Amino acid sequence: MRSWIDHAGEVVWEPSPSLIARLVEAGQPFWLDIEDPTDEIIDELATRLGLHPLAVKDSKEFGQRAKLQVYGNGAVLVGYGLDEQLREPVEVHCYYTTGFLITWRRAPSPALDALRQAGSVRPQRDSDPIRALHPLISSL
Length: 140
Known about the structure:
single chain, 140 residues, Beta Polymerase, domain 2, seven-stranded mixed sheet, 5 helices
């Protein structure tokens, strides 16, 4: 499993659960990306961030159709990007809720890496989920 978190322009590789908890408790927006998360990690994040249970259930089973669903003050997007080297699609699950963006996938995603490096995605407190997910939709 490989992961990173970007908060306020600072990227931390392999962030600890305590860092994520501190950011959530402080209400500091962040983007957390996890490659190949376990069901336990997905459940822990779902509980901490209040992710919708049906969306979480779907995210444990990759092979979903592309979709965008809005749940209250959050949204989940399942989309596909192309791995240029393998020439295969990469399924990406994106959650946005109250300033927190979480992406997870089973394989590397050059599109997400490029967005992080460019600083193109900056979650904001109380922003519209669709507007927040737009750069991701455009890049996949």
